[in-house]
Structure formats: structure tokens, C-alpha cells
């Protein structure tokens, strides 16, 4: 099966609106029929749904819980700003580096077993991060980031497989659970550490408990349904396709801004006079706003002829919120934080939407997703590290505006290419 002829084919325009959605639905239904022959529907879908929500809730607390305590952790362990930047960079880097392991592990052990096992490694990483000093801090951050990278690749496939008729709605629920988990950790970590006698280690380590709870609720899924991952396809040509690279760059650059916010926004706000609790609540509120915009942005973006205008709008909102949090008077901070949340919820959900819209069929989408996440998150990790370096060199936060501007403008340029109504030019065949 081929999305294009092999000899330098002309670009194919993506059908608009209803026609586009109908074609994607036909492709998806054909794939689902093939999968369901070897993979029966879950007997208790409500239990699977609950498990998916609980797993998704745990894919961001390990990242967002560190930010409100970063200054305290750095003082306690004597970390420089560059080392603190590396601490915020390592988990994001691992998202990209370990993402390619997910399909390999799923084919060998089954997706359900891998999710259960990786939830346990995630809990171990969170516990390790809270013990053994700076060595445990960095080792646990690596293990936690690697765990999130693997699970993050597997969950969308499980949603598509077991909720094929409601994949769009379930993807929205999955995305909202991600945002909710991030918001909970950002807002509750400092109060938790204060509750535990001002122990940042216990405040960070608390988030191992939700991961263990998710593993307990996921346990009934293990061993029931295997086989969906044995249907394999080879997709050729993604790395040579300019559109695939534009989608990947947009994914990576918008993610870079997102993880700068997760890793550094509370420290920036503390530097502007807020308490750690106040800074964590601002981050939490900004992330909560993403619940609405992450659902609304893709729906609005598919109403037009392409997604370029939507990409420009959400990126400008994101940059406006970032510059407001960095430079505007502090008494208007909540307004800028809300603006930032509206923008970043849209940029993230549009990045996921572009993977589907730029792919001819589900197999191409899976490979484009792997490329966009693997390379994109690796690229995204450079943003938080650059913030730490610049802060170390300058001793302040003022110069960060240049980092925001460069990354944001780069995302707009990549998004203008990725938002065009075209398919990536690849070949796909069953193996």
C-alpha cells in the first residue's frame, strides 16, 4: 500500500472538513476491523477507561512537581543554575530518547504488561529522585522521564484499539487527564512539602503513590488482550519528507516552551517576588486553563481550509502570556497566566492533530507520531537547559525573552509549513 507513487509525485491536497474526516474515518475503520479480528473488545470498558485516566494522570506530575520546589532543592543540594537547568532538561530528553522503545516492548510483552511494568519504574524513579541526594535526584529524573516516554507512546494506541468508535472523544479525555495531572502536581507539591515538615523530598516523593494506585487499577488489563501489536507495517520515506520534518519541528519547538514553563516558570515568578506556594498555584492555574483550549483548538482549526492561521494565533497567545509573566506588572499576573494557558493548550493539541491530518492512513500516522515525539522531545529538552545556562550567565531572568522569541518564531515558521493541507509523501506496506 502506498500513499504516493514512488517517482517524485506531486503533493496531494488534504480534503477539507467533512470529506477529510470521512476519509480518515474510512482508513481508521479498515484498520480497526483488522485489529479486532485478533483482539476482542474489553469485557468491562468502564474499568479500562478508569485505568487509562489514572495512567494518564501520572504522565506529568513527575515533570511539573519539581518546578515549584526547584529553588529550594537547588539551595539544599548546592546546585548551580546550570545544574538546575540540566535537572529540568533530563526528563524531557528522556521522553524523546526512550519513546522508540515503546513499540519494541509492546510487540515482545504486550502493551498492557508494558504499561503496568513501566508504571512501577515510574514510581521507583519518583522515589529515587527523593532520596540519595543529588545522585538520586538526577538518576530518578532520568528513570521517570524514560518511563513517561514509553507510556506516552503506548496509550494513544490502546485508546484507538479499544475505543475505536469514540477515539476522538477518548483522546480528548486522555489529553485532559494529562493537563489535570500536571496542574495537580504544580499546585499541591509545595503545600505537601510544608505539611511534611518542610521536606521537599517527601513533597516530591508523594507522587509515587498515584503511580502505584494507577498500577493497581491497571492490573486487571494485564494478560487479557494481546496480539494487536503483531500486525506490523513498514513505512518508508518519512525522514526524507520536508512536511514530516515541519510537523516534527513544530512539535518539538512548542514542547520546548511547554517544558520551560513546567520547569522554570515558578522560579521566574519567585524571582519576581512571589512565594513558592503562590508560584506553584499560578502554574497550576495556567495548566488548568489548557483543559478547555486543548479541546477547542483542534475543533476550530479543522473548520478552515488548513491549520496555519490557528497555529499562528495559539503561538502568539503563548508568547504574549510568556512575555507578560516575565515583564508585565505583577498585579496583572493571573491574566497573563490564563493567556499563556489558552495558548499552550492550543499549541499542544494542534501538534497532535497535525500528525493525524498530515497522514494518509493510521500506519503512517503511527510512524509520524514516533518521529515527531522521538526527535521533537529531544529537541524540546534543549529549551529548559538553555534557560538554566542563560540564568547562570546573567544572574537574572530578563534575558530569557530572547529565548522565548527565538523558539516561538521558529515554531511559527515550522507551523506555517506543517499547517498546509498536504499529506506526507511516504510508502507503507505490511510486513
UniProtKB/TrEMBL annotation:
Isomerase keyword on record: no
GO cellular component: membrane
SUPFAM superfamilies in UniProt: MFS general substrate transporter (SSF103473)
Spans through the membrane: 46-63, 83-102, 114-132, 138-159, 171-193, 199-219, 243-265, 277-297, 309-330, 336-357, 364-387, 399-423
Molecular function GO labels: transmembrane transporter activity
InterPro entries in the cross-refs: CynX-like, MFS, MFS_Cyanate_Porter, MFS_trans_sf
Transmembrane found in the keyword field: yes
Record keywords: Membrane, Transmembrane, Transmembrane helix
Highest rank taxon of the organism: Bacteria
Matches recorded under CDD domains: MFS_NIMT_CynX_like
Matches recorded under PANTHER family: 2-NITROIMIDAZOLE TRANSPORTER (PTHR23523:SF2), PTHR23523
Protein name: Cyanate transport system protein
Native species: Pseudomonas chlororaphis
Taxonomic lineage: Bacteria, Pseudomonadati, Pseudomonadota, Gammaproteobacteria, Pseudomonadales
Chain's gene name: yeaN
Amino acid at each position: 500500500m502506498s500513499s504516493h507513487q514512488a517517482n517524485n509525485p506531486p503533493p496531494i491536497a488534504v480534503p477539507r472538513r467533512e470529506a477529510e474526516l470521512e476519509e480518515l474515518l474510512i482508513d481508521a475503520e479498515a484498520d480497526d476491523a483488522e485489529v479486532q479480528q485478533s483482539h476482542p473488545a474489553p469485557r468491562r470498558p468502564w474499568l479500562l477507561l478508569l485505568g487509562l485516566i489514572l495512567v494518564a494522570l501520572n504522565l506529568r506530575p513527575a515533570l511539573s512537581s519539581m518546578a515549584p520546589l526547584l529553588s529550594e532543592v537547588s539551595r539544599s543540594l548546592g546546585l548551580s543554575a546550570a545544574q538546575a537547568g540540566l535537572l529540568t532538561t533530563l526528563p524531557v530528553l528522556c521522553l524523546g530518547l526512550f519513546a522508540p522503545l515503546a513499540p519494541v516492548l509492546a510487540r515482545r510483552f504486550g502493551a498492557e504488561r508494558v504499561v503496568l511494568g513501566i508504571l512501577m519504574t515510574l514510581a521507583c524513579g519518583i522515589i529515587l529522585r527523593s532520596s540519595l541526594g543529588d545522585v538520586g535526584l538526577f538518576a530518578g529524573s532520568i528513570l521517570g522521564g524514560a518511563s513517561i516516554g514509553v507510556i506516552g507512546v503506548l496509550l494513544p494506541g490502546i485508546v484507538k484499539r479499544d475505543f475505536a468508535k469514540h477515539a476522538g472523544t477518548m483522546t480528548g479525555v486522555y489529553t485532559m487527564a494529562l493537563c489535570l495531572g500536571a496542574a495537580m502536581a504544580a499546585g499541591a507539591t509545595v503545600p505537601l512539602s510544608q505539611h511534611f515538615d518542610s521536606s521537599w523530598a517527601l513533597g516530591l516523593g508523594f507522587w509515587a503513590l498515584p503511580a502505584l494506585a494507577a498500577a493497581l487499577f491497571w492490573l486487571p488489563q494485564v494478560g487479557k488482550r494481546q496480539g494487536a501489536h503483531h500486525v506490523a507495517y513498514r513505512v518508508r520515506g518519512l525522514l526524507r519528507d520536508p512536511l514530516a520534518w515541519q510537523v516534527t519541528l513544530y512539535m518539538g519547538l512548542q514542547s520546548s516552551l511547554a517544558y520551560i514553563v513546567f520547569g522554570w516558570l515558578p522560579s521566574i515568578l519567585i524571582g519576581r517576588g512571589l512565594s513558592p506556594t503562590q508560584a506553584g498555584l499560578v502554574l497550576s492555574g495556567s495548566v488548568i486553563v489548557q483543559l478547555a483550549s486543548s479541546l477547542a483548538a483542534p475543533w476550530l482549526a479543522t473548520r478552515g481550509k488548513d491549520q496555519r492561521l490557528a497555529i499562528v494565533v495559539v503561538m502568539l497567545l503563548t508568547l504574549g502570556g510568556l512575555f507578560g509573566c516575565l515583564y508585565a506588572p505583577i498585579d496583572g499576573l493571573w491574566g497573563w497566566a490564563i493567556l499563556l494557558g489558552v495558548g499552550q493548550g492550543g499549541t499542544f493539541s494542534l501538534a497532535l492533530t497535525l500528525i493525524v491530518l498530515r497522514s494518509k492512513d493510521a500506519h503512517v500516522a503511527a510512524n509520524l507520531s514516533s518521529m515527531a515525539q522521538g526527535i521533537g522531545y529531544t529537541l524540546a529538552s534543549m529549551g529548559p537547559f538553555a534557560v538554566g545556562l542563560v540564568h547562570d550567565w546573567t544572574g537574572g531572568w530578563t534575558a530569557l525573552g530572547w529565548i522565548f522569541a527565538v523558539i516561538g518564531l521558529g515554531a511559527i515558521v515550522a507551523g506555517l509549513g506543517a499547517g498546509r493541507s498536504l499529506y506526507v509523501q511516504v510508502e507503507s506496506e505490511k510486513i
